[in-house]
Amino acid sequence: MFRRVILSGSFLLANAIALPSALAQPAPPASGRVIEAADGDVVIVPHGARVAVVRRAQVQARLVYVAAQQTLLLLTDPATFGPLDLADAKGFRRWHVQGSWPLESRWEGNATLDEYVPLARSALTLAIHTDRGTILVANATGQEVPYAPAPLAVVRTTLSSGRPVRGSFDEIEQAWLANGDIGLSALGPVPLVGAQVRMGPSASRSAVAPSTTGAASAGALRVGGSIAVPKRIQNADPVYPELAKNAGVQGVVILEVTVGEDGAVSDARVLRSIPLLDTAALDAVKQWRYEPTLLNGVARPVIMTVTVNFTLPPRARF
């Protein structure tokens, strides 16, 4: 039987599970009522109400900060990627951190994750509640969101990605440190049942590799056969990150892009990752423009694969 809850005004909806007494209940992250909903509940929102939604999960977690790459890794058991069948899979998420990391380089233990469905340009995307306090992972370009009590740390990030992965925490961490996202793929495929996984409001983000991007369901055409590769009319070279130069990192980042009806790149995701170069590649392709693709005289969005090559001059190579 469905339960019906009538809501009004500004509030926070938390889709929660019961927490054991060993973990403190996370405090509400913003003003307003907190309604804990379960499967089968029906929520009716009055027209014009402002709503924030939080998906909550209890996990075993490992946080790893890789200082050389300014990258934060979050490993979770189980994986938490919405309505997907992810039996026997761990969750893997990574962010490029702006500024310094305020904590030790490694933490592991029980945690509660509050993942926020973005409201307007909210900066807050994920709250990680640990036995030491709450760590907020926030989009660097978003607006501040009040949070009480004061968190242990607020981490500002740009590039973000997430995927389910097979293996133990140690295997996943070592595979990524050795060979980035390609190393994770070598651990074996994870069968997915459900929609594609995206995370965070950042425009430059990666995703679990689905067969199509979100734009495909809106009528985008995939290049191939009678659909020719559109002509690029505006180029932008990537800015080589100093950290990658100093580390002697080079290679080819492969991306899947959606070119809109106007010829601008409206979406991009990394297919083959070089962690120190991914953000620069994404930033570059978002500035590219193409001649619109016409089908029966009507402009249509298209999906295709592109590459961004990073090559160091000989004197800079290790």
Structure characterization notes:
- By secondary structure, the protein is mainly β.
- It has two domains: 132 residues, no CATH class; 103 residues, TonB (TolA/TonB C-terminal domain, 2-Layer Sandwich), CATH 3.30.2420.
- It is built from three helices and 19 strands.
- The strands form five sheets. It has a seven-stranded mixed barrel with strand order 5-6-7-11-10-9-8. It has a four-stranded mixed beta sheet with strand order 12-19-14-15. The protein has a two-stranded parallel ribbon with strand order 1-4.
- The longest helix has 17 residues.
- It is globular and about 55 Å long.
- The N terminus is likely disordered.
Number of strands: 19
Parts with pLDDT < 50 across at least 5 consecutive residues = 1-24, 192-217
- Rg is 21 Å
Structural class: mainly beta
Order of helices and strands: EEEEEEEEEEEHEEHEEHEEEE
Features:
TolA/TonB C-terminal domain, 2 domains, seven-stranded mixed barrel, four-stranded mixed β-sheet, 3 helices, 19 strands, disordered N terminus
Task: Describe the secondary-structure layout.
Blueprint: E1 4-6, E2 11-15, E3 34-37, E4 42-44, E5 51-66, E6 71-77, E7 90-97, E8 106-117, E9 124-130, E10 133-139, E11 153-165, H1 169-185, E12 221-222, E13 232-234, H2 242-247, E14 251-259, E15 265-272, H3 278-285, E16 289-290, E17 293-295, E18 298-300, E19 302-310
Parallel strand pairs: 1-4, 2-3, 2-5, 10-11, 12-19
Antiparallel strand pairs: 5-6, 5-8, 6-7, 7-11, 8-9, 9-10, 13-16, 14-15, 14-19, 17-18
